[in-house]
Write a structure and sequence with these properties.
Elements: E1 2-10, H1 16-32, E2 36-51, E3 54-66, H2 71-80, E4 84-91, E5 94-100, E6 103-109
Antiparallel strand pairs: 1-3, 1-4, 2-3, 5-6
Length: 122
């Protein structure tokens, strides 16, 4: 199972109950796909530009573990869910901590595709 982050934006005019209900439905759907919720963060933020005739939204970010074969279903659920005006699903980097001669050393493991290379812009 890989680690993913679903970030989506809800309409700011939704009632608090509707926002909570939508977040709960997304979490329940991830769990129904045999996923495990790691972290949930939320809050209202302003947009850099207008989206669907509004300049702010209720951002929600859910970090979860799920099998890669289930990602497409989760993405489709987010796209079709009423009240969500933008959604993004990304694969997360995993950090492991190792002891190295009395100190701690961070080791990064990219969970992306191993055959892709990152090239800096010139």
């Amino acid at each position: 199972m890989s680690l993913y982050r679903a970030t989506f934006v809800l309409r700011p005019e939704l009632e608090e109950e509707e926002k909570n209900s939508t977040v709960k439905e997304v979490q329940d759907f991830v769990v129904s796909q045999n996923g495990k919720i790691e972290n949930v963060e939320s809050g209202i933020q302003k947009f850099a530009f207008e989206v669907d005739k509004t300049n702010k939204g209720f951002f929600v970010s859910i970090v979860f573990e799920v099998d890669a074969s289930k990602v497409h279903q989760i993405r489709q659920f987010l796209i079709k869910k009423r009240g969500i005006i933008r959604a993004m699903l990304t694969r997360q980097e995993i950090h492991l901590k190792n002891k190295d001669k009395g100190g701690k050393k961070d080791e990064r493991i990219e969970s992306g595709s191993p055959d892709r290379e990152s090239h800096p812009r010139s």
